[in-house]
From TrEMBL:
InterPro entries in UniProt: PAP2/HPO (IPR000326), PAP2/HPO_sf (IPR036938)
Lineage of producing organism: Bacteria, Pseudomonadati, Bacteroidota, Flavobacteriia, Flavobacteriales
Species of provenance: Myroides albus
Pfam family, one: PAP2
Domain Phosphatidic acid phosphatase type 2/haloperoxidase: 122-223
PANTHER family per record: AT30094P, SPHINGOSINE-1-PHOSPHATE PHOSPHOHYDROLASE
Name recorded for this polypeptide: Phosphatase PAP2 family protein
Coiled coil: none
Length: 462
């Protein structure tokens, strides 16, 4: 009887222990399922800017949009090149396109650890080149856009630029987190390659912008697919994890905006403004020593088209003509201090005070003759040059502010406003054939040239 009681107690205790074990296992299972559900919920509800597809497509989409936006203005943009440096012929872009890739493999050969080991790096690079080649050549020989120099009909998109930006993105992927200088150098050289394609009159601006987008997209897709095959984000994740992001707001940006003169540059005899509204575009960047103070600069092109409808052709019933004029413009290089205010993690306001060198573009004012009953001397290709103008190089001061919303840790969208001041000196030379007796052929005027600019900036932090 005692033995039976002992057995009953042992069975009871064992059953209780087993039941407790089952309950504990159920609890653990519930916890695991709940955690998985929470993780799945977090993954499905990621911020739009943190999603993989957004990270891959965002920057290329911006470049493709810029290419489309400039398509109908490509000849006007080339006119700027023709007016400032029409004889530019330096083929550095043929070699610069390969520099970022050469630097990447050079660092690997030197033993500098990056994101991946050499085998995986090579596979990722080969995949990027394959994607880029298919996209570029597929579009080139379908679109058949004539080059600006008229040599061939395979201008769009720029293969050199696509190669350069694919290589820059490759260098960024492998070593950008190790040291931001690698990424800055790579994209800087890629930008110089793209600019070189336009300066050498081999590509239109939309060709270059589309090529940059294709290059970055090719490398992004290559790493996406290769990472899926390997099942992780890189061979040396433990190495990359120890590098912390730079909290200082150092940046590089592309900017474009409208300009408005605070006084007219040129007026008609009736005091109507001929050149007041215009546009500007350029590059801006700054390196910050801490979260507030930095030093930087910008390279900007500004253009002020003449209001040709306000220019009256000479009153002569024997001539049907229209006055044409090249827009007034200037190219400015300036540097100076920056100061940043931060409003939480997403917003910052930057102030700047820059000084630099401004060079103006020479231009012509012509009479476009549609029909004439009389013989007009000095008429070439239906046009008679009335006058030419030449602005003097001068010092320009720029003060401005920029409000940025940070889409991600590395990218922001900026609204900016700048005030620009210089002392303009313009020399006009009148065609002798249209001068009346006693008129001066050369006229020079001095006056302050002040204008405001308002526009947007795509800001990349490093």
């Amino acid at each position: 009887m005692k033995i039976q009681c002992y057995l009953f107690v042992i069975i009871l205790l064992g059953t209780k222990s087993f039941a407790q074990h089952i309950k504990q296992s159920d609890k653990d299972l519930v916890k695991e399922l709940t955690a998985e559900k929470l993780n799945l919920s977090v993954a499905n509800n990621k911020n739009f800017w943190d999603r993989e597809v957004t990270k891959i497509a965002l920057v290329p989409t911006v470049f493709f949009g810029a290419s489309a936006a400039t398509w109908h203005s490509k000849e006007d943009i080339r006119e700027i090149r023709n007016r400032y440096i029409p004889t530019f012929k330096y083929k550095y872009d043929d070699y610069f396109q390969y520099v970022p890739a050469a630097a990447t493999f050079g660092l690997k050969a030197a033993g500098v650890q990056g994101r991946n080991n050499i085998k995986r790096t090579t596979i990722s690079y080969a995949t990027s080149m394959a994607i880029m080649a298919i996209l570029v050549n597929g579009i080139k020989y379908t679109a058949k856009v004539e080059r600006p120099d008229g040599s061939t009909k395979n201008s769009f998109p720029s293969g050199h630029t696509a190669m350069a930006f694919a290589n820059a993105a490759f260098l960024d992927k492998e070593y950008g987190l190790v040291n931001p200088a690698y990424a800055i150098g790579g994209y800087g050289i890629a930008t110089m390659t793209g600019v070189g394609r336009s300066l050498n009159n081999r590509h239109w601006a939309p060709d270059v912008l589309a090529g940059a987008g294709i290059g970055i997209l090719s490398t992004q897709l290559a790493y996406f697919f290769v990472d899926k095959i390997y099942g992780n984000k890189g061979d040396n994740l433990s190495l990359l994890s120890k590098y912390e992001g730079n909290e200082n707001p150092s940046f590089l940006s592309i900017k474009v905006g409208y300009t408005s003169g605070l006084a007219s540059l040129v007026e008609t005899e009736d005091n109507e403004s001929l050149a007041k509204m215009g546009w500007e575009a350029g590059l801006e960047g700054a390196y910050f020593f801490n979260r507030h103070w930095g030093i930087g600069g910008q390279i900007m092109v500004a253009s002020f088209p003449f209001s040709e409808e306000k220019l009256s052709a000479p009153e002569n019933h024997q001539i049907d003509a229209k006055v044409l004029s090249e827009s007034m413009g200037n190219l400015t290089f300036s540097v100076g201090p920056y100061y940043a205010f931060h409003f939480g993690e997403k917003w910052n306001l930057m102030l700047k005070a820059l000084g630099g060198y401004s060079t103006g573009a020479d231009g012509n004012i012509s009479l476009k003759v549609r029909s004439s009953d009389i013989d007009i001397p000095d008429l070439e290709n239906g046009q008679l040059q009335i006058a030419s103008y030449k602005p003097a190089d001068t010092f320009q001061f720029t003060a401005g502010m920029a409000l940025t919303y940070n889409i991600t840790d590395n990218l922001g969208v900026t609204l900016y406003s700048d005030f620009n001041h210089s002392q303009a000196k313009m020399k006009y030379t009148i065609n002798k054939s249209i001068l009346e007796e006693g008129d001066s052929q050369i006229n020079t005027f001095h006056q302050p040239f002040n204008y405001m600019s308002l526009g947007f900036r795509l800001t990349a932090y490093f």
